[in-house]
Amino acid sequence: MTRNRFAHIAKAAAWSTLVFATAASGKNAEAQQPAVSPDPQQVTTASATTFHCNMNALSAAERRSHEELTHKLIAMRTQIVETEKGYEFQFDPTAVSIGELATWAVAESKCCPFFDFHIDLEQRGTLACLRLTGGPSIKPFIREEFRVPPR
Q1: Which stretches within 43-97 are classed as H helix?
Q2: I need a surface site. Which of 55, 111, 128, 141 has the fewest CB within 10 A?
Q3: Whole-angstrom distance, CA of residue 119 vs CA of residue 87
């Protein structure tokens, strides 16, 4: 079962790489057909960028739970720090635990495998951080999806 899970993750990562390569080439992604079609069981949606999320990666119950946790993280973040490759969201660890950040990252990685996730507990345990990074053009996607206010 674990081998099948990793195979699915590898397929999703390969598809994401194909999408990134198409975007990086500067050509119209919609005019090009991929050489390999994605898994037929994978349903994807796209924002204004070329990032695709696997909407079938979570069950309905998992999706509800993940959405609730996403809303909590957005509401409870104490600071947003823009980094070179993405954003860091900071939290008071008494309000959002490292366990909640890890739970969120595991679920998010199933539907959005193009993110790189970094979780840190800093300042002697008084600051929890979730950093989202990724390939080129990831920042606008993060701003849109995670409601990062304009500066």
Answers
A1: 60-76
A2: 55
A3: 12
CB–CB of 108/117 below 8 Å? yes
Other beta carbons less than 10 A from residue 79's beta carbon: 10
Q: Which residues of 90-108 are buried (b: 16+ CB within 10 A; e: fewer)?
A: bbebeebebebbeebbebb
* CA of residue 111 relative to chain centroid, distance: 7
Count of helices and strands (H, E) across the chain: 4, 6
Domains of the chain, residue spans: 2-54, 60-145
Q: How confident is the model at residue 51 (pLDDT cuts 50, 70, 90)?
A: confident
Residues sharing a CB contact under 8 Å with residue 36, sequence separation 6 or more, in sequence order = 14, 15, 18
What integer is the mean pLDDT of 4-20? 37
- Which pLDDT score, from 0 to 100, does residue 5 have? 39
pTM equals 0.67
- The CA distance from 22 to 24, in Å, is 5
